[in-house]
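Predict structure. Chain length: 243.
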Amino acid sequence: MRPPLNTASPAHPTARRFSVLRPRHVALLTLGVTGLCALFYNTADLPLAMLLDRLIDPSAVEFWSDITKIGDATPYVALCVLLYFGGRTLFLRAAPQKNALRYYEASRIGLLGLVSYAVSGALVHTLKPSIGRMRPKLLFNNDQYGFSPFSIGWDTSSFPSGHTQSIFVIATLLVIIFPRMKWLFLSVALSVGLSRMILKAHFLSDVLFGAYIATMSVLLVRAYLFPDVKALCQTPATARKNA
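Prediction complete.
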């Protein structure tokens, strides 16, 4: 008797769905991104920095300085604190009313943001002095390009980009909550990363690794500690994916 079409046969086990959050896949992806950053260091970082220096008009620096301020973590951390404590307080006061669940969800979103900022920020600020990469400004001012490990100071803390890490934490969090607006959030995050290169604060590989640390931190923290945080106003497809 033939088995039903939808039943997995012992000889043909159901293929496991690929997940970027499995430990093995995270390790491989991290290794790949690290290798890509090393490749950029030897190929793209230097010529791209020089190209941007030639192309960007000095009059545009003020505009990009305003864009880069969007990557400041302070207002986002404050918002997460407000969401957590405000949502928690309102939840305790409103329970067991129907709208209490919304306050609870807000507090969980805020806590997810705070933990993600803590994890990614700890990684970034551990790597910065350990690697000691010289910033592009040293290249243009003193013709210096390379590393000065275990140095303390702004000039040797280029890798990875902290502003990029900050904006990609909040962008990834917002993509999870409002998936329909993902391209808006990602566009803003990419603009901040670009501004860091235009202002000669970071190279391409610094921005890439800062974005990677932030994105993976949010996804992993959510997967292991906050799986209940889901999209608001979900489409049917998003609801099935998060089920």
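Summary: Residues 100-131 form the longest helix (32 residues).
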